[in-house]
Specification:
- The chain is an alpha+beta fold.
- Strands 1-2-3-4-5-7-6 form a 7-stranded mixed beta sheet, with helices on both faces.
- The protein is globular.
- The chain contains 4 helices and 7 strands, in the order βααβββαβαββ.
- It has helices spanning about 15-30, 35-45, 90-100, 115-120, and strands spanning about 5, 50-55, 60-70, 70-80, 105-110, 125-130, 135-140.
């Protein structure tokens, strides 16, 4: 599975905001986080320069936000449009990032209670810490 990551532009923010609400609202509220529209927009704007629209077979399927550093990749989010979920796209995106940035460590945070925790564990990530709302996870870099 090959994905095309296209740098998000200012004009994509409305799509990213709607995608965020479609994919995250349930998990945020289950974790006790009831965010305003402004707070959701602030999250879209957070590290916006690392936001990419994700295409598969020329079809927009979601978004990813990640940043490559010297020894690690910070994976801030993967959001797959609900109509494209369950097709292996999320794991394909993570694998593509791992393969492209190999052998770097990938770090991420995932909301407690979000089934994505198990998704990341299946991909080899381990919980290395936590705070009130999130697990902090990391993979073992491939060598």
């Amino acid at each position: 599975m090959i994905f095309n990551f296209v740098q998000a532009k200012e004009s994509d923010k409305e799509y990213l905001l709607e995608l965020r609400k479609m994919t995250m609202l349930e998990h945020l509220e289950r974790a006790g986080q009831f965010l305003s529209e402004k707070e959701h927009s602030e999250r879209v704007n957070y590290k916006f320069e690392y936001s990419y629209l994700v295409f598969h077979s020329n079809q927009l399927i979601g978004a990813v936000k990640y940043h490559c550093k010297i020894n690690q990749v910070e994976l801030t989010q993967i959001q797959i449009s609900p109509r494209h979920q369950g097709k292996g796209y999320g794991s394909g995106i993570v694998r593509q990032i791992l393969n492209n940035e190999h052998p770097k460590t990938v770090q991420l945070a995932v909301l407690k209670g979000n089934p994505a925790v198990n998704f990341y564990k299946k991909l080899g990530f381990k919980v290395i810490g936590e705070d009130a709302y999130e697990y902090h996870m990391q993979n073992e870099p491939l060598i």
